[in-house]
Write a structure and sequence with these properties.
This protein is an alpha/beta fold. It contains 24 helices and 22 strands.
Length: 677
């Protein structure tokens, strides 16, 4: 019984809107009568003393009655319990009806009072202008009080989403469209352009769409200060990456919010407006053009083939699967040990490419039997081997696991590829394989040597001499038609990949810092995930066997600068809002990475940003002969496995120790080698 009682009691509880309704009723009672008093005053040229006394008497007697009637009519027309901030045509219709009813009553009431008062026969009623002006004022006053809340609310919202003062860089066609869109009445963002920057001196001190062009890039700081700029929009979609990097570097020092016009709008011939503005990302500051891929070559290379991607759930592997699926592969096999990642990419591809023959398999590249089953059943024609342990400090603590997964996993996958007639095998390598100082880099160098050794054996028709590494696996046939082409693709750090420094920095920034950098002078080469995958696919097209493909990744980036730019792009100040801490180099970490050993040589390909390095000469028979020794050391968790790795990969130099004399001959500055191409 208590619950209904509480509900009944709460029905009569005064809410906030009840007080507003009472206030509106009191206002209406005054406003409806004030409207007709003002109308009478205006009828007599705003001269109060010229108004006949009997008109004043009629209004004096009629005002209380009219106030009560108006409030009742308004209440009946729901004008006191309407949510006026959302009022529309229905509410306006009710207001007109209520006004019409009260107007009729006012006319009838005043005429009746005039006759009852036995006024002169020549003045039986109020003046016509009194009625017309009075009812108009009544409607304006009563509705104005209600709709003024919406006006005040719009002003409040405008104040909350305060208009930002914008600078546009670029007085070209894109800049003009941005200025026109932002400064027009139809602009949805509320921002307004106050000045324009352009390096063309012929445009200085002139106006575009009514906005002054105040100077070139050297005047950005001055213009930001003079015009109190809060947001900068780079509107030069045709600018090179290097030009954008220089301009954005200047803008990054201004503490302004940075935006830019997407280059896709220019390429696709679309109209540039506020919808084409996007955030400036860290990729825009890499300082080189994005890699350009001949997609027709890639399409013909992939179309109609059965393709296996090991590590298909990882950052690189999943992007490989996306791009392969988009090029009409006959069958795509996702192979990964981690089921969650594999499941995610499987769902994504099934939804986007329902016609694709997609196979998702869980398994480890360490497992020879599992690999034999996959290759025997599906007979993949192309293999992209992305499965690997990549975390440098963790592999320093677990060197044997790095060898088991990276080296032996690559060996077993490559062995199965040769045995079952795979056409091409593409190894995903890293620039850390060049003169490695850590186990992870050394393991990837050994992976490169594995595929190069296989390539030598195939070209010399000695595939039967390749050790199987497993007692349960049959040897490869010795026929000369074993023609798998092996290639390695080497690139730097991938922005946004699992374990990449950029996601780590972003998480640290979201938490308020500090952002941890190992060393103020540490530098790395960077590329995006799509670029890395495009390189892998293009390398698969170019492969003839034994090559190591290298991307021209432009200038290396200081990790410290990368961290500071990420903080600025978040609208914060480094060392003020977000502190940067230097933690020291981690075990096996180098201050800089190299692209390749000069002894590998460099040649251009059809793509100006892709180079090919040729294999360093080494004893393939001796290397393959020691693989069982390496396997035994890894599976017995030998603590001295680093010594064995050094013997097999002479360029490996853990803890900065000196290299053997034979290996030292191969170490020439890689940047000098690139400069000589």
């Amino acid at each position: 019984m208590s619950a209904p009682y509480k509900n009944k009691k709460s029905r009569f509880h005064f809410e906030h809107w009840h007080f507003i309704s009472i206030a509106l009723a009191l206002f209406d009672a005054v406003a409806v009568n004030a409207s007709f008093y003002i109308a009478l005053w205006m009828r007599y040229d705003c001269q109060f003393w010229d108004i006949p006394y009997f008109y004043i008497d009629i209004l004096k007697f009629f005002a209380p009655v009219y106030a009560v009637v108006c409030v009742l009519v308004f209440w009946r027309c729901k004008m006191y319990n309407t949510i006026w901030r959302f009022a529309g045509m229905h509410e306006l219709y009710l207001a007109i009806v209520a006004t019409a009813i009260t107007f009729v009553f006012h006319i009838a009431g005043t005429i009746a009072l005039a006759h009852l008062a036995h006024v002169d026969t020549y003045a039986p009623r109020m003046p016509i202008t009194y009625y017309s002006i009075g009812i108009a004022l009544q409607f304006i006053f009563t509705m104005g009080a209600r709709f003024s809340y919406r006006v005040l609310l719009s002003f409040r919202k405008a104040d909350m989403a305060r208009t930002k003062r914008v600078m546009v860089i670029g007085a070209g066609a894109a800049g003009q469209m941005i200025v026109r869109d932002l400064n027009s009445n139809n602009s949805r963002g509320g921002d307004r352009v106050y000045c324009i920057i352009d390096d063309n001196q012929n445009k200085w001190n002139r106006y575009m769409e009514g906005v002054p062009v105040v100077g070139g890039r050297n005047d950005i700081f001055t213009a930001v200060k003079n015009y109190q700029i809060e947001k900068i929009i780079l509107a030069i979609p045709s600018a090179s990456i290097e030009q954008k990097r220089e301009i954005l570097s200047i803008c990054g020092e201004t503490e302004c919010e940075l935006k830019q016009v997407s280059v896709l709008y220019q390429q696709m011939g679309q109209i540039v407006d506020s919808n084409s503005i996007r955030d400036v990302s860290i990729e825009d500051l890499l300082g080189r053009e994005s890699i350009k891929i001949n997609m027709e070559e890639v399409f013909s290379f992939i179309k109609g083939k059965t393709i296996l991607v090991t590590g298909g759930g990882g950052s690189i592997g999943s992007e490989l699967c996306r791009q392969i699926a988009a090029h009409e592969a006959k069958t795509l096999i996702i192979f990964d040990i981690y089921e969650n990642n594999a499941y995610d990419i499987q769902l994504e591809l099934k939804e986007k490419y329902p016609e694709l023959d997609l196979v998702t398999l869980i398994g480890s590249v360490r497992d020879s039997r599992r690999l034999e089953y996959v290759f025997d059943r599906y007979r993949p024609q192309l293999v992209f081997h992305a499965a690997a342990h990549k975390h440098v400090p963790l592999m320093e603590d677990s060197p044997c696991e790095s060898i088991k997964n990276n080296v032996l996993g690559t060996y077993k996958t490559a062995y199965a590829a040769v045995k079952y007639g795979c056409e091409r095998f593409v190894l995903i390598s890293t620039d850390k394989a060049v003169n490695p100082t850590n186990v992870m880099g050394a393991s990837k160098r050994l992976c490169e040597m594995v595929v190069q050794s296989f390539d030598k054996k195939i070209k010399s028709a000695q595939t039967a001499l390749i050790p199987s590494m497993s007692s349960h696996t049959e040897s490869i046939c010795g026929e000369t038609d074993c023609a798998t082409e092996f290639v390695a693709v080497r690139f730097g750090n991938v922005l946004g990949s699992n374990g990449s420094v950029v996601p780590i920095f972003k998480k640290q920034i979201e938490k308020g810092g500090p952002v941890t950098v190992t060393h103020p002078d540490i530098i790395r080469y960077f590329m995006t995930v799509p670029e890395a995958v495009s390189l892998v696919l293009q390398a698969g097209v170019y492969a003839r066997g034994g090559e190591i493909f290298v991307l021209d990744m432009g200038s290396p980036v200081k990790i410290d600068s990368l961290a500071r730019n990420l903080i600025k792009l978040s609208g914060l100040k480094p060392d003020v809002d977000i502190k940067i801490e230097y933690t020291g180099l981690r075990p096996g970490e180098k201050l800089y990475e190299e692209k390749l050993m000069a002894a590998e040589g460099l040649e251009k390909t059809a793509n100006d940003l892709i180079y090919v390095g040729h294999p360093i000469d080494f004893d393939a028979d001796g290397f393959l002969g020691r693989m069982n020794e390496l396997r035994e050391a890894a599976y017995s968790n030998d603590e001295n496995i680093r010594e064995l790795i050094m013997d097999m990969a002479p360029t490996y130099r853990p803890d900065g120790r000196d290299l053997p004399e034979a290996a030292e001959k191969n170490l020439v500055d890689s940047n000098a080698a690139l400069a000589g191409v």
